[in-house]
Design a protein that fits this description.
89 residues, 2 strands
């Protein structure tokens, strides 16, 4: 008795017609904006964990960028609540 599972692969990673439900909000942050990161929520030992560890100490957007944070990191971390903006410049 073999158990089988049907797997559907979507070319864009999600079913057709769901694009509008999958948009990530990317904040328009300036270098002087003050930010604060939550404790590292990533899986220990993963690349994202190491990257987050390197930039989580930043207090401004410019510091975070200098420490390795990318645009997608700002978008992901703010959408998941790991990044808070404490003061806008």
């Amino acid at each position: 008795d073999k158990k089988t599972m049907e797997v559907v692969f979507y070319p864009n990673g999600y079913p057709i017609g769901e694009r509008s439900n999958r948009k990530m909000i990317c904040p328009a942050l300036r270098d002087a904006d003050c930010i604060e990161y939550q404790p590292n929520p990533k899986n220990v030992g993963s690349h994202s964990y190491d990257l987050y560890e390197s930039y989580k100490v930043a207090k401004t957007v410019a510091e975070a960028r200098a420490l390795g944070a990318r645009g997608i990191d700002f978008a992901f971390d703010s959408n998941w609540g790991y990044l808070s903006v404490t003061r806008l410049s």
